[in-house]
Amino acid sequence: MSTAGHALAFAPPSVAGQTRRNLIGLDRTELAAVLAELGEAPFRARQLWHWLYHRGATDFAAMTTLAKDFRARLADRFVADRPGIELGQCSEDGTRKWLLRFADGNRAESVHIPEEDRGTLCVSSQVGCTLTCRFCHTGTQRLVRNLSPGEIVGQLLLARDELHEWPSPREGRLISNVVLMGMGEPLYNYENVAKAVRILLDGEGIAISRRKITLSTAGVVPMMKRCGEELGVNLAVSLHAVTDELRDTLVPLNRKYPIAELMAACRAYPGIHNARRITFEYVMLRDVNDSPADARALVRLIAGIPAKVNLIPFNSWPGAPYECSSDEAIARFSQIVFDAGYASPVRAPRGRDIMAACGQLKSASERARRGAAA
Ligand code: SAH
Fold it and tell me: For 25-79, CATH number?
């Protein structure tokens, strides 16, 4: 494991002493409106978009297709800011994790997971989380606030900066996939997430296709349809239990939207079919949800839904009330689901040496800071 601190990037004040506005996170219409205020023609917005999101430029002076005086006026008023990096870590297996620091001092995390045929960036949607899932470390941190579209997109731009992946390559990308599976519940910050996703999808910029973006939800039932209709991204559902009794404890959101309602929303998710399945995430907790009877009940629950089941070995954290299931229990569970006709991969633990599971780096750094202050 290696650790490195980085200089924090904040927008310095402009010459006139006013804070310069961050352009990252504005959609095309907003960007055009901003330029119209400067008296620029709409096609300039398209050029600027290309520099910001295809080339990853942060320095207006380098945007050589724009007129010099226009570049100077942009530089005086705007920035193309990313979050700062408070801590960057690289695991022995190549997984990288960044503890990000936003302009107001709040922190969240993103993780890059390289694999043979793809590279996945896991991004956060909120600072903290309101859901208090019992096995999740972020659940022990209170919600501070939603992330803005710019802060969500900024996580990808920053990872691209760090991996030196500009301009946006057509193929062989280090970041080919994005999962909204970091801190927070994306469907509780839907508007900002939707705006960020549309920027990621834009073919003249970052250009990641819908098939390569997955949104993970604990089951905010009333938002699922909209997500499918408006964004058309893949859906992952954090199921983790097959009875309301247990799920009420593990994922307290279940008390609001119980399993039957969640399953109905999954069946109705727009655009699902066999090539476009829903992923059910299921964290393996020893003697809690990992019996063969649980596996059989899971199969009955998802009957008829084009689905796959991701079995996630529980990633433990200090003080966690659960343990990870045994390898045998996980293998047995996976076999039952597989025999029923569903792909049931066991997610390989990645980045264990850097505590890459949800919320862990943020808490570790806060403990260290409290320790240092004591
Ligand atoms: N709120 C969203 C997205 C964030 S959590 C959701 O619930 O889906 C992303 C995934 O990580 C969820 O499936 C969550 O249940 C899982 N997860 C959280 N903490 C974990 C841990 N300690 N070990 C294994 N999986 C965990």
Answer: 1.10.150.530
pLDDT in tens, 39-93: 999 899 999 999 999 999 999 999 999 999 999 999 999 999 999 999 999 988 8
Please tell us whether the domain made up of 89-354 is placed in CATH 3.90.550.10.
Answer: no
Annotated catalytic residue, options 40, 86, 109, 185:
109
Span(s) in the chain for CATH 1.10.150.530: 25-79
pLDDT tens readout for residues 274-285: 778 999 999 999
> What is the residue with the minimal CA distance to atom 1 of ligand 1?
185
Whether this model's pTM surpasses 0.85: yes
Residue 237 CA to ligand 1 center (angstroms) comes to 10
Task: Write out the two tokens for 337.
Answer: 């689901």
Q: Which helix (H) or strand (E) holds 29?
A: helix 28-37
Give residue 171 CA to ligand 1 midpoint distance, Å.
29
Distance 168 CA to ligand 1 centre (A): 29
Identify which of 111, 81, 85, 119 has the alpha carbon closest to the alpha carbon of residue 100. Answer: 85
Nearest CA to 289 out of 236, 228, 248, 229 is that of: 248
- Nearest partner of 95 among 71, 122, 129, 124, judged by Cα: 122
Q: Name the closest-CA residue to atom 20, ligand 1.
A: 136
